[in-house]
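Q: Convert this sequence to structure tokens.
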Amino acid sequence: MWDDAADSPDPSVAEHVRRYLATDGRDGYLEGGVTNLVLTVKGRKLGRWLRTGLFFGEDDGRYVLVASGSAITHTHPGCVSRETPEQTHERLRQVITMADLAVHEGVWCFEEFPADRPPELTADTLAVVRDSESWSRLVPLRDGGADVERFGIFSFHFPAGLDNSGFVGWLAGHLKAELGTGVFVICGSNRARGGIYDYWGCPIDLVEEAVAIVRSLRLA
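A:
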């Protein structure tokens, strides 16, 4: 039944869905750093099965689905805005222009620790995350770090009340198209500076080019 479902008329969405299904989500679940799912529904008027890819997020224990060209806003969680890709691009250029951009000097890496030994929160620690098996601490590269991946880091703080929904996928897409590289993004919250902020990491050899692209997207 679902094998006969019609794909989205948007070629990029249709390709994403086919890739997602062919790999059981291994390729496509995280697209542009955002979680995705495939939704299949039966059309109300014609009774045809239709499928599309959707971003999704969680808001206070509730799942929120976001259509292509739409996004979840940090300022009003769970609110879904609808706009054309052109409108999204123009809005997010305003966002990146108004955001406080910082480039963090030096070379950064992840240090790993066993799950039962949480790392010390040193003054130069930018972030700490964990999975079921280990802790990971983002810190400047120290002596003896020959076997770790090396990253350059830049970050954004957004003004309060600014609709920055869709920002991660939008900017990650630009960096992938221009440089061929993926990125990692770690988010935190500081309500005294507007709420959500992002740390962005890319291979150290490409960080200068990545920052140049970011600056080119900021409106004069």
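The longest helix spans residues 85-98.
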